[in-house]
Design goal:
heterodimer; A: mainly alpha; Formate dehydrogenase/DMSO reductase fold; disordered C terminus; B: alpha+beta; Alpha-Beta Plaits; 2 domains; 3-stranded mixed beta sheet; 15% strand; elongated; binds iron/sulfur cluster
Amino acid sequence: MSIPQPLGGPIWTKPFKVFAVFAAIGLTLIAIRFIYGLGAITNMSNGYPMGLWIVFDLVIGTAFACGGYALAITVYIANRWEYHDLVRPALMTSVFGYTLGGIAVLLDLGRYWNAYNIFLPWQVNPNSVMLELAVCVLLYIGVLWLEFLPTLLEKIGFKKGLHFVNHLLFVFIALGVWLPTMHQSSMGSMLIALGAKVSPLWQTDLLPLLFLLSALIMGFSVVIFEGALSAMGFWKPMETPLFIRLARIIRWVLAAFLIIRLSDLIGRGYLGLAFNGDLRGNMFLLETALFALPLYILASYKHRENRQMLFIAASSMLFAGIVLRFNAFLVGFSPRPGYVYFPAATEIMVSIGMISLEILAFLYFVKRFPVLSFGEHQTKTAQ
Amino acid sequence: MSLDRRNFLKLTGGAAVLGAAGTAEARPNKEPSPDAVGMLYDATICIGCKACMAGCKEANDMPIDSNLAEPGQPPIWDTPIDISDKTLNIIKVYKQGSAEVKDREFDGFSFIKRHCMHCVDAVCISVCPVNAMRKNPVTGVVTYHPEVCIGCRYCAFACPYNVPAYEFEKPLGQIRKCQFCDHRLKQGQLPGCVEHCPTGASLFGTRKQILEEARRRLSMRPGEEYEYPMQTVDSPHKHVATVKQYQPYIYGEKEGGGTQVMMLAAVPYDKLGLPNLPEKSAASRSETVQHTVYKGFLAPSLLLLFLLYITNKTVRREQHEEERKQLEEE
Ligand code: SF4
Ligand code: SF4
Ligand code: SF4
């Protein structure tokens, strides 16, 4: 097993500065939101009371951040230690992805100063999916930071602390599998209470299962996708052989997802809606195609060997997960009649600012902290 | 590289743990309280005067909702286009073709009153994480409690009638919705809208009385004269009018598990903008799924134990090996 090392190199590079500007714009807009209210910088309305920040930053953002979750299952539960080197970078994007999802929720809360109520046992409503979601996501953010702690402690050389954390690491890891299993499925359950307000193409009691499976798919894909990107960005060779094997695992999850999705639709008798030729039908077809394409690509050994194909498959799966979530929450959603929603430029800039912050943190951490392990796999797998 | 057998067993073990708890019973719709209050809106005797809207504003101290004011000028009069954070109650118009005759679907028009329906099995209550939406156990009125509300707007997202409205324009906004004038009921007064209605189109009573009254109207023949009670079902004050051809069912008796505000109209309800809802409440569906997955938190607890057992083994083993290697190197 290779030892993770800081990449080193200067922090204030050109891309870093560009992202810093976006982050600054986002932070300024956030200040405006708190001074003048949500209406000042968002297009949310009482027809569309939930918008981009919940759907994109929370629901999609945390699914993107499921790399840590997917790998934790592979490595620690299925006992596949050859993927261990991928855990740290995946964990790091999970830490930042989830933290930002949590921040997005705080920005979005209309009465954030009352937020502590979700921790008062006599005040909460256990029937509320939102409660489960909020508590689970917050706890998971804490757990992710704890899982990530060894990386930080190694850096500052705090041996005793490191030893202690490593001793309890198995608890954090178990929690780190447990919590996302619950809240990623709950993101889907959230829509069940909307009943007829969500098109039958997406409204099903199986939503929790579909969201959980697709979060896993996105988690695996993001590991491949980011591996490829950062390998390009830092001019290090991509760890292809590992990713190829990872791709084989994804195939099964993908197949399961598609079988459940389609048989549910057929069983409920709504598959016909897919071919109506309207926006919803077409978006459903797009979503399904994006899930099916990687299944086709990954079915062939030759394709899995091919770096570009692997990259295409990973991107397709990520888009599939995004489109599924946008569809279920916005496209399939029937608002109050007469309302339309497209996020305001300022609303989008806040999301971009948040992502920029995440990238800034990522760049800083891989350069200064022992996160990435490179190079050794080439020799290892050549044997 | 297929999963080896031991791992396969582990995974199926986990699946079994999840599956074992998947047998929770479906939660049925909630039943109305025997003393639940009710309101009947009869579109056929509504004259569209909007006195109820003015009455509602006054009773609830709501601001002018002007969509006609010149920019920069103070609003002149109340011109809401829908219920909102400034308007809890609105009279809307349905028009078709030449809109000649009232209460006719084609070439006719009709009014419709919209506000909170005070659902029997309210989804806004089921989804609120902090119990900021509550149902009075006796009257069944659904009230809102800003002192605990976190402003997540899940209630607005889920309400089938799109009722709860958040004050997006304010930095410290809250949710606004019709609360059946709970503060007035407590003082023995009628809801503002009912008190101001000149024809009895908005009628107050218990839910039972309201249902009886609505059934009586449905049993009458069109063209007959009927003494419509004003303000309350049992009021001595009546207003005589000709019975119209009603749609043959009471909107709100069954919709989404039933509501405490019910409607009668001559034009099909979906044309008036009222949603077509199944009898099973969305709240019961959602809670059934949630409880099937979580059944008393038993399944999650078992799953966590199972995960702890495995990670304890795998992580520990790996850590020991690493330590051993390090020792060897030294
Ligand atoms: S109409 Fe909407 S706000 Fe009113 S009780 Fe029903 S779910 Fe709640
Ligand atoms: S906005 Fe307030 S009342 Fe509505 S669901 Fe959220 S916490 Fe409850
Ligand atoms: S009951 Fe009160 S709050 Fe509700 S519509 Fe009537 S006047 Fe308005």
